[in-house]
Write a structure and sequence with these properties.
This protein is mainly α and 48 residues long. It has one helix at residues 6-47. 88% of the residues lie in helices and 0% in strands.
């Protein structure tokens, strides 16, 4: 029976975590870009 390659498994887990974190950051960035654009017209309408 071959020895388990712990370094490979650890590297795969780290890559998966990095990928998830990058996706999360991208989602948050896209939400912040969209949200202010939606808020601005509402504020302008209220001021009229």
């Amino acid at each position: 029976m071959p020895k388990p390659n712990y370094q490979f498994e650890k590297r795969q887990r780290e890559l998966e975590k990095k990928k998830k974190k990058a996706e999360k950051v991208q989602r948050k960035a896209s939400v912040t870009e969209v949200a202010p654009a939606d808020v601005v017209p509402e504020v302008l309408q209220e001021n009229k």
